[in-house]
Specification:
Mean pLDDT: 85
Shape: elongated
Radius of gyration: 19 Å
Strand content: 25-35%
Order of helices and strands: EEHEEHEHHEEEEEEEEH
Largest sheet: 4 strands, antiparallel
Structural class: alpha+beta
């Protein structure tokens, strides 16, 4: 069994960083922390292989650490039920309370290359991308940039060999098993398969991010939706 006490390290005086070295248990832990709230925890911030847990006060430190170790030990011992979503594998509820729909024009410059890498037609890539219920694992790189995972890891392609110096806002992309929408113009090395007019980040919106950790997302092909 993993000695979780060695995987929980201080991150300042009001936070701890849990290192998991695998994206699958990250999502399972983040989900469990949202369901089983620990007293004193202010926020839970998952990343690719870590979870940052912030606290309301330094006085909660010892108790939060103790409960985190107990929760991690319990998750280690529990086996996901066959008829329930397996968060560790990135699966999601077939009928989540809220699904963000993102209309996409599948006009990305890298769509033909993505199809070639996956040994699919471009139509099949689009069908798989729109036919998947994605889940935001974490947010990073830029405000509003959500790393979306699929239940079966479909459409996994590498980053481009050479990054672009400028990617326009609204670009829909794939890389490393994730899908994402660029919220603003930035350099980037993901494979571009489409574009959307939705604003992923807007300071005049509450909350500003359209997609946050845990959000379910479905892409809609505007060519077939018309």
């Amino acid at each position: 069994m993993t000695d979780w006490s060695t995987r929980i390290r201080p991150a300042g005086d009001r936070a701890v960083l849990i290192t998991l070295d695998d994206p699958r248990p990250v999502q399972r832990l983040a989900s469990a922390l949202r369901v089983h709230a620990i007293a004193g925890v202010q926020d839970v911030l998952p990343a690719a292989e870590t979870v940052l847990v912030t606290m309301h006060s330094v006085s909660y430190g010892i108790q939060v650490r103790r409960e985190l170790v107990a929760l991690l030990d319990r998750l280690d011992q529990e086996q996901p039920q066959a008829d329930s979503p397996d968060v560790s594998r990135g699966t999601v509820d077939d009928s989540p309370d809220e699904v963000v729909e993102i209309p996409v024009r599948y006009d990305g410059a890298d769509l033909p290359e993505v199809a070639r890498l996956l040994d699919l037609t471009t139509a099949e890539v689009i069908a798989q991308h729109t036919g998947t219920l994605w889940r935001c694992a974490f947010v990073g790189f830029a405000p509003g940039f959500g790393y979306l995972t699929s239940p079966d890891g479909r459409l996994t392609v590498p980053r481009r060999a050479q990054a672009r110096t400028a990617i326009p806002p609204g670009a829909v992309a794939l890389a490393g098993g994730y899908s994402a929408v660029y919220p603003r113009g930035t350099p980037g090395g993901w494979q571009l398969i489409g574009s959307t007019d939705l604003r992923m980040w807007a300071v005049d919106r509450d909350p500003p991010a359209l997609v946050r950790a845990g959000t379910a997302v479905r892409f809609v092909d505007t060519a077939t939706a018309e």
